[in-house]
């Protein structure tokens, strides 16, 4: 098992870690729109490992049309340990050096405390942002991470990505949870556009991670 956690005041929202709260959909952070989707993407150890590897190598973000740029590791030692308990409460992490990994293009895998820039367009609108990796989880049956906005985005908030290999039925599930608070004038004026943006992101993430996904965008 490997878990990493990083919290920093430079994120541009207050509810750090709220995507792990069980009641996110009922009680989202102030001014934000919550979203959650889960999809069965196969079964077995191989499917779980393949999906987890894709997730930690930024496949979901790239499939959403976002270029990954300026990836920087956390300043100082990484953190390992439990990030959040079952109720979404943070638990003090422990320090541990983690071996860096890279994808075929030389981009570092997702790591706790890492910052990066994404650039692209979504629904015809700019989707540039600076992001921070809030936490990373690598367990025998769960792989995932949490991304939070630092600045420069049309929305502020957080996304969590998790691949779970269920022990009771051998199924592998991909879950994305998020909350978005509009920053741009257009999104503040027309709130349904925030939800539309999120629906399109979810569809693209699923296309990237699931071999079962066949519905065109």
Automatic annotation (TrEMBL):
InterPro entries: DUF1990 (IPR018960)
Domain of life of the organism encoding this protein: Bacteria
Domain DUF1990: 13-74, 108-208
Residue stretches in coiled coil: none
Signal peptide start and end residues: none
PANTHER family: UPF0548 PROTEIN
Descriptive protein name: DUF1990 domain-containing protein
């Amino acid at each position: 098992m490997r878990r990493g956690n990083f919290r920093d005041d430079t994120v541009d929202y207050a509810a750090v870690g709220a995507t792990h709260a069980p009641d996110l959909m009922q009680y989202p952070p102030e001014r934000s729109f919550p979203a959650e989707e889960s999809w069965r993407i196969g079964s077995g150890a191989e499917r779980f490992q393949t999906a987890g590897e894709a997730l930690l190598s930024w496949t979901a973000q790239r499939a959403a049309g976002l270029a990954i740029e300026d990836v920087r590791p956390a300043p100082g030692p990484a953190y390992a340990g439990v990030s959040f308990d079952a109720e979404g409460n943070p638990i003090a992490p422990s320090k541990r050096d983690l071996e860096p990994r890279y994808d075929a293009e030389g981009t570092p895998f997702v790591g706790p405390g890492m910052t990066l820039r994404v650039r692209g367009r979504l629904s015809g609108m700019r989707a540039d942002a600076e992001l921070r990796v809030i936490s990373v989880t690598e367990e025998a049956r769960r792989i995932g991470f949490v991304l939070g906005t630092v600045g420069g985005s049309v929305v502020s908030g957080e996304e969590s990505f998790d691949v779970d290999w269920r022990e009771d039925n051998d199924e592998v599930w991909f879950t994305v949870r998020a909350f978005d608070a509009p920053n741009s004038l257009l999104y503040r004026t027309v709130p349904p556009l925030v939800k539309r943006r999120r629906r399109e992101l979810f569809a693209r993430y699923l296309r990237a991670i699931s071999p079962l996904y066949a519905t065109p965008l």
